[in-house]
Amino acid sequence: MKILYGVQATGNGHITRARVMAPALAERGAEVDFLFSGRAPDQLFNMEPFGDYQCRSGLTFSMSKGKVNLWQTLVGNQYRQLIRDIRALDVSNYDLVISDFEPVTAWAARNQGAPSVGIAHQYAFLNALPDGAKWRVLKPQVKLFAPVQQAIGLHWDSFGGHCLPPLIQPPLFTPTQVTEKYVVYLPHDDLAELRQALQSYGDQQFYIYCGVTERSEVGNIVLCPFSREGFQRDLASCAGVICNAGFGLLSEAMQYGKKILCLPQQGQPEQISNARILAQLERGTVVKNLRAPEVKTWFDQSAPMATPWPDVGGMLADWLVSGRQLSLPELGERLWASVSNNQVSSVNNHHSGMIERT
């Protein structure tokens, strides 16, 4: 089976999902070509799993100090180039086109009548979600941005059987808990302002992942360069995570059993939806800024129960390669049943292997 797999590279969560699917599909004999868009090629890192991948400009958001800059987003995207790339991409040699909310591959498949499947968190917004009707705003945008014949949405709950569990890697490191250690990933915030805000919490130590070239430490702040392995190692050992409302990282934090302090990006309806559902499911604390009174309370909270997500990648790869014979509701039932079983196991083994350090 020959597959063209398009990945929206604006957010790391899309790439993380592709890292799971790449070996899963290869193990089942599928030949996969990857195409990434939405980020400059020189800003991609740890891309070895994708072989000789392609890049296109695609579409992306323009961010400024943690907010979506709508004007820069509108004028900064290369719409003519997008249309040229869609028209130039020949998908006739592929048995299937998969889009992780990537517009070039999705629209090329649509225009050429090729079979297409969408696998992304964003496709969850095609269904009713308990997010204060944000999904109603996002539904037409999702359909327009990356249309597919069969859409698979991913979320933290099935919400009536319409969504599959998160598609993420299993833990790369054994979860431990170093008290007073917190991982911070707010890549669009001003670093100087971020450091100033966190320095006021002198009893805690913050590992900020940002665009630096090497790790450095000043006071209670550790600046860390982007690294998939380094980030996962710190995530596994921290007491909690401070981040935006991106679906991938929040799912990983739940898997490791880490408490979450969430600052959704302003002007980003998807993140606002995620934050509302996160709070509704009591999976994290949502604040507007790091000086909110809830922050101090959050530091004193205990670690939540870990959620070991099932092997969504393996089951999806089986389903795709075998010709998608199982219905999506049936596939979802099997995966969510696995989540319930894993949670029972997690309760029985809660805190086993956890290390408290002061």
How do you describe this structure in short?
By secondary structure, the chain is α/β, with parallel strands linked by helices. It has twelve helices and 18 strands.
The CATH superfamily of the largest domain appears as Glycogen Phosphorylase B
Poorly predicted regions: 344-358
Rounded mean pLDDT is 89
Query: Portion of residues in helices?
Result: 25-40%
How many individual β-strands?
18
What do you see in this structure?
The protein has 358 residues and is an alpha/beta fold. The protein folds into 2 domains: 2-168 and 310-342, Rossmann fold, CATH 3.40.50.2000; 177-299, Rossmann fold. It is 37% helix and 20% strand. It contains 12 helices and 18 strands. The protein has helices at residues 12-27, 70-76, 79-88, 103-112, 134-145, 191-199, 228-237, 247-256, 269-280, 294-299, 312-321, 328-348; strands spanning 2-8, 31-37, 54-56, 63-64, 67-68, 96-100, 116-120, 150-154, 163-164, 177-178, 181-185, 205-210, 216-218, 221-225, 240-243, 259-262, 285-286, 356-357. It has a 7-stranded parallel sheet with strand order 3-2-1-6-7-8-9, with helices on both faces. The chain has a 7-stranded mixed sheet with strand order 13-14-12-11-15-16-17, with helices on both faces. It has a two-stranded antiparallel ribbon with strand order 4-5. Strand 13 and strand 14 form a beta hairpin. The protein starts with a strand and ends with a strand.
